[in-house]
From TrEMBL:
Species whose genome carries this gene: Amazona collaria (yellow-billed parrot)
Name the UniProt record assigns to this protein: Ras-related protein Rab-17
Keywords associated with the record: Cell projection, Endosome, GTP-binding, Hydrolase, Lipoprotein, Magnesium, Membrane, Metal-binding, Nucleotide-binding, Phosphoprotein, Prenylation, Protein transport, Transport
EC number: 3.6.5.2
Localization per Swiss-Prot or TrEMBL: Cell projection, Dendrite; Melanosome; Recycling endosome membrane
Subcellular location, principal: other
MF-aspect GO terms: G protein activity; GTP binding; metal ion binding
Length: 213
């Protein structure tokens, strides 16, 4: 899992650990739990129903630091959403997951993005759009280019994945970890409250949600 990073060399003997809260958001059955399970346990189960929220931890030994990803998996069912919006408070990164065989789930991911944009300023959170179930190519309803283009216009990381066939699952979490570390380094170099961000969520916004955890 560990990969060499080229983010600069920390002072000798210092290898900090950065804990980051990562939330999985998306409609029911898009494969949020399966992605977390594949990533953390390197396994796939046909049935992993989520009731409320669950939680996984994964450590990543990068060259300049250890990254501890605390992965929060929220149930996509509408009935849980009034509760689960609490779970993305204080998040450092979010995976907006849709199912490439179900166009409606991409529309729903766009609504989650709108919620995140109300809750976070652009440089406060790393957001990745994730099109899951690419192993079901024959049933595809969302073209790769459509997800890619939406992500590009909104400044999101983008990847298509398959939890089932283990396609790009490590890669998307690694891309998030790298982006989080890079921002950490940028903050250290330029300690302005809103330093340069490589992810742009749109125009500058005032956070309208209530207090953060
Ligand atoms: N073919 C295929 N099926 C998948 C993939 N990922 C998940 N599934 C299946 O899709 C269904 C839903 O997966 P879950 O991981 O439970 O989805 P979820 O988004 O966590 O669902 P909720 O907990 O209801 O929000 C299950 O039957 C999984 O086996 C994938 O990459 N490919």
């Amino acid at each position: 899992m560990a990969q060499k990073e080229v983010l600069g060399t920390p002072p000798e003997g210092i290898h900090p650990t950065y804990p980051y809260k990562v939330v999985l958001l998306g409609s029911t059955s898009v494969g949020k739990s399966s992605l977390a399970y594949r990533y953390v346990k390197n396994d796939f189960k046909e049935s992993l129903p989520t009731v409320g929220c669950s939680f996984f931890t994964q450590m990543l030994n990068m060259e300049v630091a250890t990254v501890k990803l605390e992965i929060w998996d929220t149930a996509g069912q509408e009935k849980y959403q009034s509760v689960c919006h609490l779970y993305y408070r204080g998040a450092h990164a979010a995976l907006l997951v849709y199912d490439i065989t179900n166009k409606e789930t991409l529309n729903r991911a766009k609504l989650w993005l709108r919620d995140l944009e109300k809750e976070f300023l652009p440089d406060e959170i790393v957001i990745a759009l994730v099109g899951n179930k690419v192993d079901l190519a024959a049933e595809r309803e969302v073209a790769t280019e459509e997800g890619e283009e939406f992500a590009r216009t909104r400044g999101l990381l983008f990847m298509e994945t398959s939890a089932k066939s283990n396609y790009q699952v490590n890669d998307i979490f690694m891309a998030i970890a790298r982006e989080l570390l890079q921002r950490e380094q940028e903050k250290a170099r330029a300690p302005s409250p809103h330093g340069r961000s490589t992810v742009t969520l749109g125009e500058s916004r005032v956070r309208t949600g209530c207090c953060r955890l």
